[in-house]
Amino acid sequence: MMNQIIRKIVSICLVVFSMGSVFGKTPVFHYVKITTDKGVCLLKLYNETPKHRDNFVRLVSDGYYDSLLFHRVIAQFMVQGGDPDSRYAAEKQALGNGGPDYTIPAEIQEGLIHKKGTIGAARDDNPAKQSSASQFYLVQGRVFTEAGLDSIEQIRLKGKKLTAAQRQAYTTVGGTPHLDGNYTVFGELLSGLETIDRIAEVRTDERDRPVSNVRMSMVVLSRREALNLEREAAGLPPKNGFFTKIADLFSSQKY
Fold first, then answer.
1. How many domains does the chain have?
2. What's the confidence (pLDDT) of residue 222?
3. Is 189 domain-assigned?
4. Cβ count near 153 (within 10 Å)
5. 252 neighbors 23 (Cβ within 8 angstroms)
6. Are 166 and 110 in contact (CB under 8 A)?
7. What is the mean pLDDT of the chain?
8. Residue 247 burial (CB < 10 Å; 0-12/13-18/19+)?
9. Which CATH number goes with the domain that contains 192?
10. C-alpha 182: how far from its chain's center?
11. Best CA proximity match to 131, nearest among 101, 107, 103, 99
């Protein structure tokens, strides 16, 4: 009798283990939901910039960004946040210098450009172009004509030519081409471009700080949420059935 019970327990354990192997896949990307006073955004983080990706995921998971302000807003350019001093900032208080006591090495890559909806890491004028550990900006920018991009090449980029991909993006979606090559871009919005537009249109003071506070909160999507998002993007139904839920009990929702 005891041997039969042991065999059943072993069989159940093997089934659970095999379910975990089947269902315990890892998403391709990390995703962050950004909730603001002006709407919600869904952000995909690039794997090509792992130092920025992992740092951002850690800070979001720790609740670092919750209740922080978008403290610098410039229409047709970008909306910036991530200064921890903004959480309890007084009216008209100067912001933009707060953050952890470390920087992130630059991960600037030619193919990751400042098209509308991308997230970039803010920085000071350090020669290595190292990024602030917490401050970021979401690109609004504007749509350019071909002639406008020619002017950007000559004046802002000092003769450097834009690629065909850059020209395609900046004449359709829009963005801020003069930032390319100078700041690390580490992700892009999958939804919520209209949220950037709403934030960018608020009234600001002489320091580009919104007169009425615009706050944020963030959460990293769980492993299952990310997997289902990627399934839906591939035209497949999400997995939320009984066996999936059982298997998820034995798999970390972090990845």
1. 1
2. 97
3. yes
4. 18
5. no
6. no
7. 93
8. buried
9. 2.40.100.10
10. 18
11. 103
Q: Is residue 252 part of a domain?
A: no
Q: Report whether 211 contacts 146 (CB < 8 A).
A: no
Please, which residues have CB within 8 angstroms of residue 177's CB and are 6 or more apart in sequence? 113, 114, 141, 144, 149, 152, 156, 157, 162, 166, 170
User: pLDDT tens digit string along 54-88?
Assistant: 999 999 999 999 999 999 999 999 999 999 999 99
Element (H, E) at 78: strand 78-81
Q: Let me know: does 254 contact 29? Beta carbons within 8 Å.
A: no
Q: Which residue has the tokens 């006591």?
A: 101
Domain residue limits at 34:
30-142+172-221
- For residues 82 and 70, the answer to whether their CB atoms sit within 8 Å is no
Determine contact, residues 180/165, Cβ cutoff 8 Å: no
- Position 152: which residue type? I
CA 118 to chain centre: 8
**Segment 126-141, tens digit of pLDDT:** 999 999 999 999 999 9
Rounded mean pLDDT of 141-157? 96
Q: Token digits for 223?
A: 């492993």
Q: Please give the Cα distance from 28 to 25 (Å, whole number).
A: 9
Per the listing, tokens 């917490």 go with 134
Q: Say what the pLDDT of residue 45 is.
A: 98
Return d(Cα 242, Cα 114) in angstroms, integer. 42
**Inter-residue contact 46 to 117 (CB < 8 Å):** no
